[in-house]
Structure formats: structure tokens, C-alpha cells
Fold each of these.
Amino acid sequence: MTQTVETDFIALGDLGSGGKRARARNLGTLVVFAGDDLAFGDATRALLGDSLDLVQRAAKVAKFKGAAGSSLDLLAPTGVQADRLLVVGSHAKKKPEGEAEYLNLGGQTMGKISGAEVITVAFDLPGETAHPAGAAADFMLGVRLRSYKFDLYKTKKKKPDEDDSTPAKVKVSIAVANLAEVRREAKHREALADGIVKARSLVNEPANVLYPVEFAARAKELEKLGVDVDILDVKAMQKLGMGALLGVGQGSVRESRMVVMRWNGQKGSKAKPVAFIGKGVTFDTGGISIKPAAGMEDMKGDMAGAACVVGLMHALAARKAKVNAIGAIGLVENMPDGNAQRPGDIVKTMSGQTVEVINTDAEGRLVLADVLWYIQDKYKPEFMVNLATLTGAILVALGKEYAGLFSNNDELSGRLTTAGTATGEKLWRMPMGPAYDKMIDSQFADMKNVGGRNAGSITAAQFLQRFVNDVPWAHLDIAGTGMASPSGDINQSWGSGWGVRLLDRLVSDHYES
Ligand code: BES
Ligand code: MN
Ligand code: ZN
């Protein structure tokens, strides 16, 4: 069972006030916010009533001044109907920096209250700046993302009295001044939260459970939200001539699949669809060019690109985004075997171009080559954005802070970069060009699948570009950001669900009518 958190919004006025507590109820753990120099909002002052004095005395003892990131924890406070009072330093004097600000505050707050089952948040941030209606909704998203935990396979749960840091169910009520407005905004964030959680769980699942056929079945669940989902099996892909994708999967007893998801939120519109394509290698041993044993278990996450696409399609459909969007994922398992492809093999892609497979561990680009071609050919999209845990080299270049961005189009690049800054899922554009492209010319075929030691992430991108015609295209190399993610305010999970917020933002900012 995965720990669940339930959130809802209530009116600030319904919390009662310290002075007259006629309507007051037990608030469980009450969270309030303090700004610099222990500034409180008016609603917070009213709510605290007599206990304001207690808070001020405790703050003095603890040297708590309301700085961002700090907090003051009061157990069994008097003068307020709560078991516990947590005062969280908010970001009062700093100008809000967009959605990530409140999102992170939601995550931080949850990080400070392990053990609480009933939580009431008085969302009344001090300071003169007006906070957008989306602020409380973003806070809620942060609460939900921070609370996600993948413990499906832990059978030895601690008894509740042994470990009160993880109650099975947590209820968080967020009290706001502008209830109706916040509820409207929250619908979008709920959809996003569900999509991100879905992506995270796909990345976290082990490869013996989540192989291509099972992954396709999970994508098929999107039909419940009104998404059209087509699954192409090996025979169908053979018919299309997808020799590159199929070559990667031929060493596995798990059959390959391709899934195409379509969300038509702009019914009747003639607008071209936007397209998102994901690498879905459910496990990457490297194949015959086998990887070293150390850390190979991480290669269950080599489908983080595909997971993001499924999570994104979930979010778009759940919030009924006014866009026509296509999500396509290539699902294969890369195994060494008597039937596996060999270094030196030459495969024919759906585009007709041939590839000499120098290294069977450079498999992601082979999978994407056929999926990119198929989507471009069949749907003539407005743009294609693909996500892939493509190269270890991008980790060397950018670490886990930024994903690599490669593109043939400045406008699309700019929009993606801006969405990255706004959401905190940051992108760094890398160069491309003919000199790099030349590095993958092959002696025997149209191209080879690796370019040598130098510029590994760039030559991988050049390879993909050979399967893109005139359509605006961007490739996001998420080997650093998509898996084995560091813990932070809004993520404690190995699989972070990276990219769902980024691409949802790209869509809502530019492609919804
Ligand atoms: N899935 C890996 C890339 C990867 C590495 C993802 C580390 C996440 C963390 C990819 O298929 C791969 O093996 N790439 C090779 C390419 C090389 C053979 C040219 C690599 O990066 O070593
Ligand atoms: Mn590989
Ligand atoms: Zn791989």
C-alpha cells in the first residue's frame, strides 16, 4: 500500500478564532505562516487569538524569526483548538517567483510534520504582495507530491505504535480566503498530481513486473479518461518496417510494443496535434554490449521518458485540456541472448535509412528513430518533443540539475526553456550541427548508432535528428533528471516524474485554444 494523503479546501472563516470559539473544531496539527520579524496575516492573528502571546514567547526562546525554511513547533498549545501548532517561515519579503515558490512551500511544510494525521493549514501568507489564486492550489500540489511514497513491495510494515512517522492516511485541509477561485485552480493541480504520481510509480516499478506488454496495459488505463489508446504489437511493427525498434527487443522473451495515445480536447478543430514521444526501455542490460554489474539495477528506470508521456497524457485528459495531443512510446527490453542483435548488425528503419549497430547499448536512439518517424509520417504534428534517458554523457555534462535540450527550432526551444524556469524542471540547450552529424556516418550503412568517445549526448541527438524532417522538434535527454532523483521539498521518490509539469506548462502556455 502506498501512503495516501487527502487534501481539501475550506474557508478560512470556518476555522473559528481564538477569541470566540463558537464554531471552532479540533484542527489537529494547525499550520500557520509567519513572515520575517514574526509578521502574521490578519486572519492568522484572529485565529491565534490569545495564543499569539504564547507563540511570541516561544519564538523568542527558540530564536525563531520567521525566516524562510525555518519553523517553530508547539505541542499542546493553549488558547487554540489544536493538538499542535506549527509556525512555518514563509517567503514574505521575497517577491513570489512563480508557481515553484508555493509548490515548494507545500512540500517543505509536509516535511516538517511527520506523524500528523489530521492537518489544518491556515493559508494566510503575511506580506503586502497579493498572492495569485493559484498559490493555494500550488501549495496543495506540493503537499501531494511530498507525500508520495512507493512502498508497494514492503510487506513488513511497522505497527502504528512503533512508527508514528508514517500514518496510513493523512488528511490535509487547506483553509483559504477565496475558496471558489482556489477550487477552480485546484482542478488543474489535482490532474497534474495524478499524472505525476502515475509517472513516478511507472519509473519505480521493477522490470520483472513492468515489461513492455504490462506497460502498454497501464497506458491503456487512460481510456477511462477519454484518451484513445492504440497498442501495436510486433507483427504490426514488422509490417510498418520498424527494424530498428524491433532489433533492440529481439533478444528478450518479453515482446516489444508501441503505444499511441490520443487526447482530442479541441474537437472539430483542424489544428495539427502536438506530439510527445518517450523512450520506454523497460530494462537496459546493454544487450550483447553488456553493461557492468554495478548500478545496473537502475536501468529499470530507462523508461522514464515513456512514463512522463503517460503521466502527461493523464494530466491533460484529466483536466480536459483544450488541445489535441498525441503521446507515443516505444516499449522494449534490451537483453543479451542467443537471438539478440550483435555489434555490426545492420538494421533497416521505418524511414528506409539503414543503421549499423556498433554498440547494442546505444539502443534508445534506435527505438526513438522508428517512433519519431511513425508519428511525423502519420500525424503531421505541430511539433514533436521526445524525452529519453538517452546518454550517461548528459549526466557528466549537466548532473541532475538540468536536462539536456536539443532542438532544430529556436521558438520551441525558447518556450520549453521558459516553461522549465517556471516549473523548476530546468533545461539547458546544447549545440548541434553538421560537424557532429558527420561523426555518425558509417562505412557500411547510412549511419552508425554511436559516434565515438567525444560529445556523446550530441551525437545521440544528431542520430535522432536524422529521423526528423521539417517539423519543429526537441529532444530532452533526461538520463540525469528522470531517475535516481535526489530527495527534495516536493520529491522523496527515486522516480521523480520529471517533465510532467514542464510539458503541461508548455501546453497550457502556448497550445490551448
Ligand atoms: N540508458 C542508457 C543511458 C543512461 C545512463 C541512462 C545512465 C541513465 C543513467 C543508454 O541506453 C546507454 O546505455 N547509453 C550509452 C551510450 C553509449 C553506448 C554510446 C551510454 O551512455 O553509455
Ligand atoms: Mn543502453
Ligand atoms: Zn538505455
Amino acid sequence: MARREDKSKAAFERAKQVLVGGVNSPVRAYGAVGGLPPFIAKASGEKLTDLDGNEYIDYVGTWGPAVLGHAHPKVVEAVCRAVRRGASFGAPTEAETLLAEKIAAALPSCQKVRFTSSGTEAVMTAVRLARGATGRNKIVKFVGGYHGHADALLVRAGSGATTLGTPSSPGVPPAATADTLLAPYNDAHATARLFSEYAADIAAVLVEPVAGNMGVIPPAEGFLRALREQCTRHGALLIFDEVMTGFRVALGGAQELYGVQPDLTTLGKIIGGGLPVGAVAGRAEIMDHLAPVGPVYQAGTLSGNPAAMAAGLATLDLLAQPGFYETLEKTSAALESALRQAAADAGLAERVCFQRVGSMMCCFFTPGPVRNYDDATACDLAAFNAYFHAMLQGGVYLAPSQFEAMFVSAAHTAEDVAATARVAQAAFRAAADAFGKA
Ligand code: KE4
């Protein structure tokens, strides 16, 4: 029976009258994949329900935060309890200290923390802090890396910028990106060349330690270590943008998983348990350059607000439970195996490439391996789109872009994996028919 869509359709038409594109973040509009974005009515655990009553197994997880699943009772209760005492004071509260202490305990490189209200704000702050602390101007980022939409970083960006074909956005004056240097992801020789040319003026290297915004691309062996050594040698700061990987790939993030310590870390998503939070964190002698201790200005009305802190504290408490990441890994590995089998059954074993780090993964519609942006953008988008829509019709909710990650939560079950695999059988067959038909 075809899914009903009339309520989402009406809602989308109405939204487009007053919200640009009917959405508040571009990728949600389904521009790359076409079709109608379901309007979500509610979510619980790993399930979403749209306005028309269609239920989905959710692998977007609100783009990463829902690592527990949606509406976890302990998170809901903590937020309700906090809001009953007042949603925001614009004054210090103990909850901010408690969440910062949990972050510092999980990430030894993070002696001090500054909370913001989004990942974009966190990365923007980290870049300004690195420039202020070093007295240098240039920032190295990687092609296809996405770090939010601050001007200096909207250069060859991934995620929605790549999805919409605007990796470098209009409205960003050349002066804003004049100090942004680019290198291919996983190419430490390229960054070495940048250091040899600009060493005295590189403030920081900004990297997603697992690239999650051009699909999922793990760091090549030695890549992160090489960046660490180059930054140390040249007096630049290494910034790990762990907005997506923080508390996702391990309790201590990618820096624990790969054993490389950055000078600064940006966080978001999971630490807010679904409420608006970001954070920049690092060694005290760097962080203390921030106002009010140091001169590098940064501020925010809702930074560290009680509701978001309560959601983050409840979430991190649950992540710290023994066996949490082992169970997440088991479910994620089972899902990858089931999807690989479904692709093979559709004759696509040699035409798609699965890449996974913990509970974030991606199926690239290209033979692979996918090591950087150029590899990722070689994907067959007609095949991806056919796969995406067949999965959606079958009740499996994926990110509407080849250049995003798929997230598994603690709420996903073996039954969900089996149900997803059944839908994927048809979805990969649809993709097989669509290859080359862009
Ligand atoms: P926000 O400003 O969206 O909270 O965070 C920006 C950001 C920074 N760094 C990394 C590594 C990120 O992945 C993000 C945001 N991720 C995207 C999903 N790929 C957000 C989804 C969206 O833009 O709607």
C-alpha cells in the first residue's frame, strides 16, 4: 500500500509560504533527491512518525544527536525538571560546570570548555581563538570538510553545501576566505607543502578526524598523527572538529579512538542530547585567551542554558554506562553486514562501497575506496536517489544526500536491522536499474 503523503504535502506547501524553502536547514528540503520531505509528528527510540501516520526506522538521528534514540525517558524528565525551574537565566549555573567536568573527564585534551548554541558557533570560536592565541591568520581546512556555515569555512565545504552544489557560497567576500587554505582529506603531504609555504602564518589545521560530511571517510593510517606532528613542529594548533564524532565513535571521541590529541576540540550534537548546544574545549593555556580571562571575544545569550545542559548531562550519564559502545558497535556491525549482503544480492557488490566508523556509516554508490572529496563526488547520484526513495517508501529514513552519514542508536534492535535489510533488497535493485541514468 503506497504511503499516504497528503498531510506532509499540505504542510510543506504552507511552510514554503513563510519559511525559505519550507525548512530551516537546506538539506531537509530534499532538493538533491527530489520528492516530498515527510513532516515529522513525533519520535520515540529509533522510530519516527510523520503527519500522515507513516512510521520509519530512523538512521538520521537528527544528524547525530540521537545516539540514545529519540525522547529517552531520562532525558525528557531531566529537561522537564530543568525547564520548570526556568529555561534560561543568562547567569552562571552549576549544570554548566557539571557538563564541562564530564566532557573534561571523557576527553583529557579538554581541560576547559566554552559552551555555545551550535556547532557552527563552536568552530567559529575555535578558529578565532586559534588566531588570537597564535597571532597568526591562516587556517587549513580539507576539501569536503564541513564545519558549519561561518564565512571563513564555507570554502569547498561538504554536507549541505556539497549536496546543493554550492561548496563555496555567494555572499562570502573574498577577504573572508583569503586566509583559508585547502588540502585534500587524507593528504598529509599536501598539508606539509602548505606548512613549508606558509608556516609562519598558519594558526591552525581544522579537521574532521573522521570525515562525516562527504559521506563517511575514515582517516588514512597515520594521517591524524602526521597533522599532529606538523602542527607541533610549526607552532600551529590542531583543531579536531568532533561535533559529529564526539561521544559518537567512542566516549572520548575520535581522539580516543585514534590516540591523537588535538590542541582544541569542537563539540555539539550529542552533548546537547537533541537541544541546541556546541562547545569549544582544550588546554587551559589556550582556552584562557577567551574573554573574560583573555582578550579573544566570544559570547552567547543562551550559551550553557539549563535545558540544554540538563539534556546533555542525562545523555552523557547514559553513554558512560558499561557496555554502551560495545552494544552500539554490535548493532552497527550487524547493520553493515546486512546491507552489504543486500547490495551483493542485487549484484552491486563491486559497484558500491561501504565505509563505517562505529555507529556512523555510509554506502557510497561508487566502487571505492572513498578517501577524499574527489572520490566521494564520483558517486552515481541517480543510483543513490533511487536507493534513497525505495528505502523511504519502505519505511527506512535516511539522510537525503549521498554526502551524509547514517547513524545507529542504542535504540535500534536486531529486528530493525532485519527489517532494514528486507527493504534494502528492493532498494539496491532499484539502484542497480538507475546507475548511469542521472
Ligand atoms: P551546527 O551548526 O549544524 O550545529 O554544526 C555544524 C557542524 C560542524 N561540524 C561538523 C563536523 C558538522 O557535521 C556540523 C553539522 N553537521 C550537519 C550534518 N552533516 C548538520 C545538518 C544540517 O546542516 O542541517
